[in-house]
Amino acid sequence: MGRALARVLAVDGHSMFYAQQKVGWFFDPRRLLALASAGEGVELASAFWYAGLKDPTDQRPFRDALTGLGYTVRTKPLRELPSGSGGGGSGWAGEGEPQRHFTRANLDVEVAIDLLSVADRTDEVWLLSGSRDLERLVEVLRARGLRTVLVSTEGMVARELRNAADQFVDLASLRPKLEKADAQQQPVFSRS
């Protein structure tokens, strides 16, 4: 019998939240783990989940549940940035009107560090993201011999990232395998 295929799962929580809203349903992180570890000779070597937080208690039950399921959860505080400023500026649009602000917790560096750290013992990466900033990471992983499967949805993924990956899987096509079925199972954050 040959060596198992070592697969790593990396979920950009922010990107996937909006992708799930777009497709109109939410996936169950438990079912995602099962899908990622399915297949003969597949070993799920690591599973990472990246999330921005409003404060240290934000999403605590969900993060605890993810950890309990086996995910390594990486977090960063959300930062408020003036729109269109790239992070600088006074926050005022002029004429006495305040600019609209948005929050961001860019975890792309954490994704890159984690995936490069496990690359030597990994054969395949499932990346759930749409971030253009991860294009170079995917190129480097492929150059190191890793197969990269990108999971996102049409209109929510950067063309550059999609082109860099070995395979693109539209999240919408995974609905039968991943959708939360609250009436059929306990919530993901339930502890039994």
Notable traits:
192 residues; alpha/beta; Rossmann fold; six-stranded parallel sheet; two-stranded antiparallel sheet; 7 helices; globular; disordered C terminus
Number of strands: 10
- Please give the largest β-sheet: 6 strands, parallel
Poorly predicted runs: 85-94, 183-192
CATH superfamily: 5'-nuclease
Helix/strand/pairing category: alpha/beta
Number of domains: 1
Characterize the overall form: globular
- Number of H- or I-type helical stretches: 7
Helix-strand layout with pairing:
Layout: E1 5-12, H1 13-23, H2 29-37, E2 42-53, H3 60-69, E3 72-77, E4 79-82, E5 92-94, E6 97-98, E7 101-104, H4 108-118, E8 124-128, H5 135-143, E9 147-152, H6 159-164, E10 167-170, H7 175-178
Parallel strand pairs: 1-2, 1-8, 2-3, 8-9, 9-10
Antiparallel strand pairs: 4-7, 5-6
Summarize the structure.
The chain is α/β, with parallel strands linked by helices and about 190 residues long. It has seven helices and ten strands.
How would you characterize the overall build of this protein?
There is one protein chain. This protein has seven helices and ten strands. With 192 residues, it is α/β, with parallel strands linked by helices. The protein has one domain: 5'-nuclease (Rossmann fold, 3-Layer(aba) Sandwich), CATH 3.40.50. It has a six-stranded parallel beta sheet with strand order 3-2-1-8-9-10, with helices on both faces. A two-stranded antiparallel ribbon has the order 4-7. Helix 5 links the parallel strand 8 and strand 9. It is globular and about 50 Å long. Mean pLDDT is 87; it is low at 85-94 and 183-192.
